[in-house]
Specification:
Largest sheet of chain B: 7 strands, mixed
Order of helices and strands of chain A: EEEEEEEEEEE
Distance between the termini of chain A: 40 Å
Number of strands of chain A: 11
Shape of chain A: globular
Number of helices of chain B: 0
Radius of gyration of chain B: 13 Å
Structural class of chain A: mainly beta
Largest interface: A-B, 28 and 25 residues
Distance between the termini of chain B: 36 Å
Radius of gyration of chain A: 14 Å
Structural class of chain B: mainly beta
Strand content of chain A: over 45%
Shape of chain B: globular
Number of helices of chain A: 0
Oligomer: heterodimer
Number of strands of chain B: 11
Helix content of chain A: under 10%
Helix content of chain B: under 10%
Largest sheet of chain A: 6 strands, mixed
Order of helices and strands of chain B: EEEEEEEEEEE
Strand content of chain B: over 45%
């Protein structure tokens, strides 16, 4: 069963706070992990990818990966109202017949609201 | 400008009237995919294509067809649309499979309503 789980939210944080978004996945063999941001009515856009255990930082965003716990998170520091969006966690799963192909499975997303 | 384009952006149609949503990318990407997005269900993959003439089913392929005759184009065909296919559709492309760490680039979306 291919599953990517996220809290649907909404997650509400005050401006300037740290927003913490969490994601768990069911495929222990998954190696790549993606965080997409989607503004209402718009298409998803990639904000972070992570492949190794530990933290990866890019500006105000930090992705954290723990493969043993099958858990990936996204921290947004100094949250801004412009960060208000739905954040999608995406994990590629191996297709059953093998090979390097893999369907990208998206979580249902966490809606973040940053209050001024 | 590197981009994925979809047409039409909005479409209202009636049950049973065949339609095609076009998707085109100008990034020379091997991998293309179609998703539908529904409230409470998230993004679900319909079909994907690893290369020209290579297509495979995603998680929700029923009622849809695709073709990949050229690298840049990946049209989505609804032979006999039904109201349960009312949804927001996204086309996406990437250099290769996501399992190899390739980022998917999304088109602007097509909002389809089937009456």
């Amino acid at each position: 069963q291919k599953e990517v789980e996220q809290n649907s939210g909404p997650l509400s944080v005050p401006e300037g706070a740290i927003a913490s978004l969490n994601c768990t996945y069911s495929d222990r063999g998954s190696q790549s992990f993606f965080w997409y941001r989607q503004y209402s009515g718009k298409s998803p856009e990639l904000i972070m990818s992570i492949y190794s255990n530990g933290d990866k930082e890019d500006g105000r965003f930090t992705a954290q990966l723990n493969k043993a716990s099958q858990y990936v998170s996204l921290l947004i520091r100094d949250s801004q109202p412009s960060d208000s969006a739905t954040y999608l966690c995406a994990v590629p799963f191996l297709v059953n017949y093998g090979g390097s192909q893999g369907n990208l499975i998206f979580g249902k997303g966490t809606k973040l609201s940053v209050k001024p | 400008e590197a981009q994925v384009t979809q047409n039409p952006r909005y479409l209202i149609t009636v049950t049973g009237k065949k339609l095609t949503v076009t998707c085109s990318q100008n990034m020379n990407h091997e991998y293309m995919s179609w998703y539908r997005q529904d409230p409470g269900l998230g993004l679900r993959q319909i079909y994907y294509s690893m290369n020209v003439e290579v297509t495979d089913k995603g998680d929700v392929p029923e009622g849809y067809k695709v073709s990949r005759k050229e690298k840049r184009n990946f049209p989505l065909i609804l032979e006999s649309p039904s109201p349960n296919q009312t949804s927001l559709y996204f086309c996406a492309s990437s250099l290769g499979a996501s399992i190899n760490g390739n980022e998917q680039f999304f088109g602007p979306g097509t909002r389809l309503t089937v009456l």
